[in-house]
Amino acid sequence: MRPNKQRDYEVGYGKPPRHTRFKPGQSGNPRGRPSGSKNLRTLLSDALNESVVIADNGGRRRVSKREAIVTQLVNRSATADWRAVKILLEILRGRREGHRAAQGAVLEGES
Asked: SS3 letters for the chain?
């Protein structure tokens, strides 16, 4: 537009001229992350939530892979598999520290 032509809208910080604004449906980053793509954490969570069939007490039942892994880890720890005991204790220690950190954040926010 010419500088001497009067506009019927304001132009300034956060308000670009209308002819330079994104059109409806046009992305500001067209080559960015595709919609629907998943990150590692989501992929891992999806894989751990898949169900598997296990033999339990003479029968079969469906459980998540996450539950099967935890059950296996606890059972191996109970049979004095020291590697399994170490992993289990690290998980428990990490959850306890995470719980304490969350409590500390809540307590700090109250003051």
From this structure: CCCCCCCCCCCECCECCHHHCCCCCCCCCCCCCCCCCCCHHHHHHHHHHCEEEEEECCEEEEEEHHHHHHHHHHHHHHCCCHHHHHHHHHHHHHHHHHHHHHHHHHHHHHC
pLDDT in tens, 42-77: 999 999 999 999 998 889 999 999 999 999 999 999
pTM of the model: 0.57
Residues in contact with 48: Cβ distance below 8 Å, sequence separation at least 6, in sequence order: 64, 65, 66, 69
